[in-house]
Amino acid sequence: MRFAIVGAGAIGAFLGAMLARAGEDVTLVARGAHLRAMQEHGVRVRGEIGDFQVPVTATDDAATVGEVDVVVITLKAHSVPAIAASLRPMIGAHTSVLSAQNGFPWWYFYAQGGEWAGTRLESVDPGGLISANIEASRVIGCVVYPSTSIVEPGIVWHLEGTRFAIGEPDGSKSERCRRLADSFIKAGLRSPIRTNIRHDIWVKLMGNVAYNPISALTRATLIDIVQCAETRALAVAIMGEAESVAKKLGIEIGVSIEQRLKGAEEVGHHKTSMLQDIEAGKPTELEAIVGAVIELGEKLGVALPNTKSVYACVKLLEQQARHHELGPQNTTRATSRL
Asked: Which residues are catalytically annotated?
């Protein structure tokens, strides 16, 4: 199969390297020093899965790639609206789009039926930019479980995990899903085809909506959060609020909050993606992970006081970071009265 992986950062480069090593035709779309390193040296993978290096085709111009079988979007969710239109040259009559972002996906209410059919959330598809450029019928849902990071340009550290759960929005086990899963499995990845991919999305989201903002605010790792009584209690409260939203949408999580706490403790000193973004001075996936849950809660009449509190604080943290990056526009002189 011919793949284009758009936003080939840590997860995208890891996936691309695994597929390329297995003989698939892969083009990585990236930018900056990471792109240049991959063009010169290929992708170098280190860590739990072993050490290997594989040459890849990499570019910063999606228009030069041509039509592919699968466009894999591994960009952070907030970056997708701005690049959605640029994907069109890669999309042919039978191209699938694998949506592999954290958080609540823009296509969630497609092919679901019921009273929420066709609902668009402004938090994940602002102005409808994504849905206007990518037909929802092309989408295959994906929940990404590997933990990876870029330790230097072109070098990906693989901490753990090889699972990419995939599923059709309508719940069918389609031929395109089977072909995609076969390619992933041949590459040494786990790729179960899920008949209710929305359930998998919520299982992951329930942890992310708590751990990501708390870690961004405290700079704490997962084990730090769950071993501090106060932040543990806050995480429990936020996960409970998210679970209430999921239930209103007909999703039974099936994984207890206590199990989620235990799982986070077992992962240990791992920095969430939101904390990594904050430390790198990058925008976070706040809207897709937390804002979407709040928007849903407002539509469904579910109170989310704890979720809204951490959302507000991370929002301010991002605004302050942007202000600092741009530099002060005004200088205020304070005087002291003694």
From this structure: 204
What pLDDT score does 334 carry?
Answer: 39
Q: Check pLDDT > 90 for residue 308.
A: yes
Predicted TM-score of the model (pTM): 0.91
Separation CA 150–CA 157 (nearest Å): 6
Q: How far apart (Å, rounded) are the C-alpha atoms in residues 312 and 212?
A: 13
In this prediction, residues 3-21 reach a mean pLDDT of 97
Structural domains present in the chain: 2-195 (3.40.50.720), 199-326 (1.10.1040.10)
Q: What are phi and psi of 232, to 5 degrees?
A: -60, -45
Sole residue written with tokens 């170098």: 44
pLDDT-derived band at 328 (thresholds 50, 70, 90) equals: low
Q: Could you give the angle at which helices 305-326 and 229-248 cross, rounded to 10 degrees?
A: 110
Nearest in space to 12 (alpha carbons), one of 78, 76, 88: 76
Give the mean model confidence (pLDDT) for residues 11-34: 98
Span 268-297, pLDDT tens digits: 888 899 998 999 888 999 999 999 999 999
Q: Among 119-123, 267-271, 313-317, whose mean pLDDT is lowest? A: 267-271
10 Å CB burial of residue 326 (0-12, 13-18, 19+) is: exposed
Q: Residue 336: what pLDDT?
A: 37
